[in-house]
Amino acid sequence: MLQQHPLIGQSCVVGDRRPYVVALLVLDPEGASAWARQHDIQATTLAELAEHPLVLAEIEHAVTSANQHLSRVEQVKRYRIVTREWTAQTGELTPTLKRKRSVILERYAADIDDLYAAQG
Questions:
Q1: Terminal Cα-to-Cα distance of the chain (whole angstroms)
Q2: Degrees, nearest 5: CA angle 112-7-21
Q3: Helix (H) or strand (E) holding 58
Q4: Domain segments of the chain as ranges
Q5: Which of 13, 26, 33, 108 has its CA 20 to 30 A from that of 4?
Q6: What is the pTM of this model?
Q7: What does the DSSP assignment read for 94-109?
Q8: How confident is the model over 12-64, as pLDDT tens digits?
Q9: Architecture of the domain delimited by 2-117
Q10: Are 22 and 70 in contact (CB under 8 A)?
Q11: Residue 97: which of 39, 37, 10, 4 has the closest Cα?
Q12: Contact 47/100 with Cβ under 8 angstroms?
């Protein structure tokens, strides 16, 4: 559901044996660039876009919209925008472009832990 929004190219949700669900979100390079042009945002990289207030607000809206279609225990409570695209070359995807959850969970363990640590 999260990836249905044009700004979000990839996502990975985490919640097994955790108090709630969190998500790692990767901006879609083409979709985010087009969205930025439509909104007169002058950013040249995904990292710059990931910090722009309009992009952050739109991602929040996308998460809220997706959550409306999920049961409470399935809803994403916290998320983090990842500033680097996941590819087969960087190891997060298989050659057929499926997510390698174990690699993502290992590489982003600190980010995931931060999402749970900030629950207060």
A1: 27
A2: 30
A3: helix 53-67
A4: 2-117
A5: 108
A6: 0.91
A7: -TT--B-HHHHHHHTH
A8: 999 999 999 999 999 999 999 999 999 999 888 889 999 999 999 999 999 99
A9: 2-Layer Sandwich (3.30)
A10: no
A11: 10
A12: no
